[in-house]
Design brief:
globular; 97 residues; 4-stranded antiparallel sheet; 2 helices; alpha+beta; 33% helix
Amino acid sequence: MSVTFSDAMTAATALERIVVLPDDWDSHGAPAISEAMITGARKLLGRFVVAGFPTPAVSPTTRGGIVFTWRAPGLDLGIEMDPKSGQLTAGVSWSGG
């Protein structure tokens, strides 16, 4: 499955919405997402697009990070960018037979 320009723009648009979130955007004290985190997310998203990955959902985390999520029937895959360490953490949930 190849990524279309429209798909890539959808993920990029999600990042643009995240960049304007203020401190306490979730009303529970979540920090604003830093510009460095947004820059890193843009680079990572670009690598996904070039590699032909399906388009992920892009969301902020309540710790100031960003998570990319792919969902398919019976399978969830997430890659989280940690704002403190700069590390990427992957998680998989599979409910296949």
